[in-house]
Design brief:
single chain; about 90 residues; mainly alpha; 5 helices; about 65% helix
């Protein structure tokens, strides 16, 4: 499993019933992750060329840090596409 796949899986798994299964389609979750991957800031911060590396060979804190960032991006995505969503506080962690 690559880092890219692991982050999508974490977004789907961790937010599972509260997000993907009921509110955010998996293709939207993948779009959020792809937008993060395409962000030049990640290329400057050591992720250049690493998205398709094996997730197994990376420290858990890297995956956790990326997951936290992708969750913030998921919030921004929902705020932009459905700002009145009743589940937004759940996604925010409130």
């Amino acid at each position: 499993m690559t880092i890219r796949e692991k982050i999508v899986d974490l977004l789907v798994d961790r937010l599972g019933d509260l997000l993907v299964d009921r509110f955010m389609f998996e293709q939207d979750a993948k779009k959020v992750v792809q937008d993060m991957i395409d962000d030049p800031a990640f290329e400057k911060n050591g992720m250049a060329g690493r998205w398709d590396d094996s997730a197994e060979g990376n420290a858990p804190f890297l995956i956790e840090g990326l997951f936290l960032h992708v969750r913030q991006r998921a919030v921004a995505h929902v705020e932009a596409t459905c700002p009145e969503a009743f589940y937004l506080p759940i996604l925010r962690g409130h």
